[in-house]
UniProtKB/TrEMBL annotation:
<dbReference type="Pfam" id="PF13411">
    <property type="entry name" value="MerR_1"/>
</dbReference>
<feature type="domain" description="HTH merR-type">
    <location>
        <begin position="2"/>
        <end position="71"/>
    </location>
</feature>
<dbReference type="InterPro" id="IPR047057">
    <property type="entry name" value="MerR_fam"/>
</dbReference>
<dbReference type="InterPro" id="IPR009061">
    <property type="entry name" value="DNA-bd_dom_put_sf"/>
</dbReference>
<dbReference type="InterPro" id="IPR012925">
    <property type="entry name" value="TipAS_dom"/>
</dbReference>
<keyword id="KW-0010">Activator</keyword>
<keyword id="KW-0238">DNA-binding</keyword>
<dbReference type="InterPro" id="IPR036244">
    <property type="entry name" value="TipA-like_antibiotic-bd"/>
</dbReference>
<keyword id="KW-0804">Transcription</keyword>
<protein>
    <submittedName>
        <fullName>MerR family transcriptional regulator</fullName>
    </submittedName>
</protein>
<dbReference type="Pfam" id="PF07739">
    <property type="entry name" value="TipAS"/>
</dbReference>
<dbReference type="InterPro" id="IPR000551">
    <property type="entry name" value="MerR-type_HTH_dom"/>
</dbReference>
<keyword id="KW-0805">Transcription regulation</keyword>
Length: 253
């Protein structure tokens, strides 16, 4: 049995345009193309598309996916490996749900207490967050850098991730204190914090001035990141963004 490109797009949620792109780059070639130019896909192609989508969910770029598929011998074994990675991602998301639940409970426990005093264990604010991942828009504009970030994340142990999360929380608390006392974002002490933030990102990829500014903007625009910053201190997401923009203008332009 064969399915048209429209059928596959409807079943998978992948647009026809994307399917044609996958064909053009040799990632997913149709079973055959009719005399009218219409692409048709068989069961083998549907299974391959499933693998592609699984690897996209796991953060792999198209070049890496093509390499995996090219060297893959046992399809069932490959799927088992994908399933293990998805199970690990599920566990991470479960941890993230517990993190947000604890934060909500602490915030609701005493609504009259200052935000910074409500959080009894700020190091727990980011348990479950994958600090090596960034906004999808950044993936689209800087796909190579986003792939490098994903590759770096894959090398980290659980202990490494926990250490990064603790440092991320500590850095946010320090920035929140600068915000609380009204320190300008151009102040050397604030910029030293941003320098540390930038150097941490450079372990994964090296942002240009525009990319670093865009990353700062995601902390404001992305609901998850904004909530994380603003649970430490109201307005912290904007303060972090502005400090990063000042750093980019002064050091990266």
């Amino acid at each position: 049995m064969a399915w048209s490109i429209a059928d596959v797009a409807r079943m998978s949620g992948v647009t026809s345009r994307t399917l044609r792109h996958y064909d053009d780059i040799g990632l997913l070639v149709p079973a055959y193309t009719g005399s009218n130019g219409h692409r048709h896909y068989g069961e083998a192609e549907l299974l391959r598309l499933q693998q592609i989508l699984l690897m996209r969910e796991l953060g792999l770029g198209l070049r890496d996916i093509a390499d995996v598929l090219e060297h893959q011998v046992d399809q069932a074994a490959a799927l088992r490996a994908h399933m293990r990675r998805l199970a690990a991602e599920r566990d991470r998301l479960d941890a993230l749900v517990r993190t947000i639940g604890r934060t909500i409970a602490e915030l609701e426990d005493d609504k009259d207490t200052d935000t910074m005093e409500k959080i009894s264990s700020p190091e727990n604010l980011f348990v479950g967050f994958d600090t090596a991942r960034h906004e999808e828009a950044a993936d689209e504009r800087w796909s190579r850098q986003a792939e490098q970030s994903g590759q770096f994340a894959a090398t980290l142990s659980e202990a490494d991730m926990e250490a990064m999360q603790r440092e991320a929380t500590a850095a946010m608390v320090r920035m929140a204190e600068f915000l609380r006392v009204g320190t300008p974002v151009t102040d050397p002490a604030v910029q030293a914090e941003v320098e540390s933030h930038y150097q941490g990102i450079c372990r994964m990829w090296t942002p240009s001035a525009a990319a670093f500014k865009a990353l700062g903007q995601t902390y404001v625009d992305d609901p998850t990141w904004r909530a994380a910053y603003d649970r430490v201190a109201a307005g912290l997401a904007e303060y972090q963004r502005d400090a990063m923009a000042a750093y980019a203008d002064a050091r990266l332009s």
